[in-house]
């Protein structure tokens, strides 16, 4: 049984909670008023917008040590929708990993909209969660959670690939915001 | 009727030729031995690997003026499969556009494998060609060619979005090279 803590109660946090609850896991969801409750999950999902991550890391200092920390963010400039707010050769995941040297950071869930995560499908396809990270065991643990819920998981490579995954997320959000794609659709993976 | 010139006879050049030939277009395919034949298409597709583009631009100096030039490249470092060879905040398309100030450069076809272009499907989905560029008429002209062949076209935004499209292409190639995806599959678009 995996103990999973999810920080953030927005639509992504709720969708990931529902996925985690489908498997043989214990799931705790942390909202903004749960600051006194320590994070104890083996897997901790940072399901907050990228600008809120630093505050969460400060609030949870030490609590993320030795844990698998899942970054789901798409660090868009939401004023222009024309760039990311992280350095072009880096990624939100790399920035977070640098701040959490005692954690195993993986990137996941940023290439799927909340709707397709909750549905388990993207059109005719089973929703696929791409997972990038430098620790094979951490990626396998998260993949186990995803597949137990009936979704597919694909190992996207090292944490370097978070740069490309965030570009996928950025492009997909840009297309949906411009009504070129529905929020119920987007990129699916045929494998 | 659109006159389309395709430079490059590899699997991508052939797949794009077949697509163009399905509509009411005239299509000319240029191989390495066709240097004496001038490029005359309204739309010119640079269907060569990124490292070969500069040579093509030199060989075709002046011939691409006033034309719609389609960049399909994925500028991977094919030795490491771990990075792109263009600056992280730029794209192959932006580099090419800077060298062709008299052309209207669009990015397209780099997020679909040759197999799914030729088939017209990615698994259960119709193959979708993402098209980015700064000239709406140029994008519409290429979209017309794509949709006349029974594929879908999606306007991916300005040429800035080529950075993200190249990240999509990079990630997709990386996944296929690592056998996480088949070359007959990959990313599909549900819209």
UniProtKB/TrEMBL annotation, chains A, B:
PANTHER family from the UniProt entry: DUDULIN-RELATED, REDUCTASE
Q: Which domain of life is it from?
A: Bacteria
The segment(s) forming the Pyrroline-5-carboxylate reductase catalytic N-terminal domain are 41-75
What the entry lists under Pfam families is as follows: F420_oxidored
What keywords sit in the KW lines?
Answer: Oxidoreductase
| Name used for this protein in its record | Pyrroline-5-carboxylate reductase catalytic N-terminal domain-containing protein
Gene3D superfamilies cross-referenced by the UniProt entry: NAD(P)-binding Rossmann-like Domain
Q: Which organism is it from?
A: Micromonospora echinospora (Micromonospora purpurea)
């Amino acid at each position: 049984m995996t103990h999973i803590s999810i920080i953030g109660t927005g639509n992504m946090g709720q969708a990931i909670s529902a996925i985690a609850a489908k498997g043989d896991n214990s799931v705790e969801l942390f909202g903004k008023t749960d600051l006194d409750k320590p994070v104890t999950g083996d897997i901790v999902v940072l399901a907050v917008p990228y600008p809120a991550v630093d505050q969460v890391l400060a609030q949870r200092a030490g609590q993320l040590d030795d844990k698998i920390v899942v970054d789901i963010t798409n660090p868009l400039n939401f004023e222009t929708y024309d760039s990311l707010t992280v350095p072009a050769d880096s990624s939100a995941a790399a920035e977070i990993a640098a701040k959490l040297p005692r954690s195993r950071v993986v990137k996941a869930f940023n290439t799927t909209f909340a709707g397709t995560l909750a549905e388990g499908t993207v059109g005719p396809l089973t929703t696929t969660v791409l997972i990038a990270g430098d620790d094979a065991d951490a990626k396998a643990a998260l993949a186990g959670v995803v597949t137990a819920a009936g979704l597919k998981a694909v190992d996207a490579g090292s944490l370097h690939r978070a740069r490309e995954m965030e570009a996928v997320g950025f492009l997909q959000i840009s297309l949906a915001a411009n009504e070129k794609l529905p929020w119920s659709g987007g990129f699916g993976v045929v494998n």
